[in-house]
Amino acid sequence: MKKGILFVIIFICLLPILTSAKDLDNENDILLSMLNHMGGHYLEEDFSANGILMDKFLSEEELDNLGNDLVKYFGLLGQEGAKNTELSADSYVKEKIIDDSYRQINYFGFDKSSNPLTIIISSYLNEETGNGQTYLYINLIKKEQFNKINDIMIGVKNLFEKYERNVEITTCLIGYIDGKLSKTEINDISLKSLHNLSCKIVDEYEDSQLVSYTAYTESIEDYILAGDDRINLNVALRYNEYDNQTLIWIGTPIITSGY
Question: Is residue 72 classed as helix, strand or coil in its secondary structure?
Answer without folding.
Answer: helix
